[in-house]
Amino acid sequence: MGVVKGGKPFDSCNATHERILETALGLFSTRGYLGATTREIARQAGIAEVTLFRHFPSKVKLLEEAITRYSMLPSLRAFVPKALAMPYEEALTAMAEILLDTLVQLKDWLRIMHAEVQRSPEKLLGIYHTFLDELFEVIASYFRELQKTGSIGSFDPELGARVFHAMFYCFFNIEEVLLRKQYRPTDREKAVREFVRMFVHGTGGIGRTDYARAS
Prior knowledge:
CATH class of the largest domain: Mainly Alpha
Structural class: mainly alpha
Shape: globular
Number of strands: 0
Number of helices: 12
Number of domains: 2
Helix content: over 70%
């Protein structure tokens, strides 16, 4: 279809695409990936199911794009170039806030997703861990750039990314999913500050164990 009248058909196509993604994420968050059918996603998006499949050839592809679009990946990717110009501790604090803000926003979906990965690993394991690989790589790329300039110590960047993510995912899981905040709330700002400080002390110094030699 050609673009006419200022690109309206193209804009309409984009709007439909976005509406499908938003509707899918909402249903995935309440019914899970396995429980949300393409027929129901299309119905709630106000389109025919065949239209949904014109945008997404399968429910798997719909889930993959929803994860990429609404996860912390776009924000972190955009932030890394800025982070490289910031003090190490300040940049890590900002990255931690991006992680936590997004995790809280996606809390309902994550809770269901984890249960579904256990029930149907053959359908979801690859999708979930492909996303995690991309997330770890974005964080690791930041560490690699700093290591090139000698700004931080020598360690495995991917394992460092996993440790950094794990600290804040664990905090989110305990506070938001296991509801510790209703039992004995923890000041988030203080927790982020302390976690980042410990991470900086463990990775920021020059002259610590050289990963390349140790491995």
